[in-house]
Design brief:
There is one protein chain. The protein is mainly alpha-helical. It has one domain. The chain is 83% helix and 0% strand. α3 runs antiparallel to α4. The protein starts with a helix and ends with a helix. The mean pLDDT is 92.
Length: 174
């Protein structure tokens, strides 16, 4: 293991740079799209459920949002893998409370489950474009509703956690 650490050692700054870039991509790739593009269309369609134009706009924007989220969902595993490599290379003692321990706890307890649900809703069983293509309108509306509630629940978490995580990573207050 020491030989591997020694071999990877000179690459550490690049691994850290890749980590920071993937964190930024993961953090901010869908925030603006949600707040100013998708959310208004979803709210409008919910307020006027019998308006086919609003539903069509909602559906189109959700499809585009899901496709755009693929960038976030590629950045996420890169972020996790580079974090694990840096922890391993630095021999971090996770039994000792520190800013890293706090970040890891938030990641494991909140962010990983949130991302798993998001990936399911955007690309797997909850992929709205695929469900709509089956012609099962009831199922489509069901997964659309699930995604609506997922985004509404996670919005405050994201708005609080992401800036907090940046502050903790930069300021290292404890």
């Amino acid at each position: 293991m020491e030989e591997l650490r020694a071999a990877i050692g000179p690459w550490y700054p690049y691994i850290k740079a890749l980590h920071v870039v993937s964190v930024a991509i993961w953090s901010f790739s869908t925030m603006v799209a949600w707040a100013f593009y998708l959310k208004p269309a979803l709210v409008s369609a919910r307020r006027h459920p019998d308006d086919p134009a609003r539903r069509a706009r909602r559906d189109d924007r959700m499809d585009r949002f899901d496709r755009g989220a693929a960038i976030e969902h590629v950045a996420f595993p890169v972020m996790v893998i580079t974090a694990l490599v840096m922890l391993w290379m630095n021999r971090v003692d996770l039994a000792r409370w520190s800013f890293l321990t706090a970040k890891i706890l938030v990641g494991v307890l909140i962010i990983v489950p949130m991302e798993a649900a998001d990936i399911y809703l955007s690309h797997l069983g909850g992929n709205k474009a695929r469900v709509r293509a089956t012609g099962d309108d009831a199922r489509y509306e069901q997964v659309m509703e699930w995604h609506w509630w997922f985004l509404r629940i996670t919005e405050p978490l994201v708005l609080i956690l992401i800036p907090t995580m940046f502050v903790i990573a930069i300021a290292k207050p404890f």
